[in-house]
Amino acid sequence: MAQPLSSPHERVLQLIQREQLLPAGVRVVAALSGGADSVALTLLLRELAEQGGFVLAGVAHLNHGLRAAADGDEQFCRELAATLALPIDVERVDVALAARRGRISLEDAGHQERYAFFRRAAARMRADRVATGHHRDDQAETLLMRLIRGAGPDGLAGIRPRAGCVVRPLLHVSRAALRAWLEERGQQFLEDETNRDAAFTRNRVRHELIPFLEARFSPPIAGVLARTAEIVRADAEWMDAAADEVAPAVLALGDRDAALDAAALLRQPTAMARRLARRALEHVAGRRPEFDTVERLLAVASAPGGEIREADFPGCRVEWRGARLVIRPPLPRPRR
Length: 336
Prior knowledge:
Number of strands: 11
CATH class of the largest domain: Alpha Beta
Strand content: 5-15%
């Protein structure tokens, strides 16, 4: 049956083709939580597979064990997969325990466990990609959250359509459009009560900040923010490509260390110098550095004759070696 103009089918297929998210013959697994977004994702991929030339290999569900309804969510996903004649891969993890062990928030622990599971599920299903249900409203919320916390072009680029093996085909479709599409079909989905918990920053942005902006400033604010993220992403990707060309003359990456030619670094425009310094720090520390950390490294680079010959940075150590700044893993902590 032909779909109306700008239907979820059309928007999803356009994004898949424009960003080459699912090339012909690729096998993809849909991340299925049971919520409206992931159910819509699964159905849309199933219906678009033949037209798009890709294969929906199955669905993957992670039981976080955080909610009393978690086992019911798992059962719903198993039943939906059976109805659609799709294989399902399920794992159970103790996210609360992972958060305590890693001394991180439940949100961060859930994110880490979820994406590690996606990689395992894809391998078991012989899939090349994992698709998640992130949509246009998620993009708007993410941009606002990062703006509030402080972010540069990479952060303000928001959720990318593809990151490694993970793809987000729904980024051009709104939450309301997805729910309306499911309701037209009479398709059930689950409601996660934690999505209204004001303890989570994203929920406050979703239920308080965005409605305020819609009512007082711009009714289509979610679409405006999502478009802004897309514009910034294109600029950030261009800057990355420019950094790739400059990097060989400034930055050398080793197996466990990095070295910056300080004079060459400081000859770069500020935006480029920050990007190269961030690459060096991230390569060694294994995580994206904060803005202040990058600025501190540039300050050290600008004073080669100063008193600072070596210094500890988050997740790494910086020291002068001749005219180069060398970034190494941190020194081991002495045993008590």
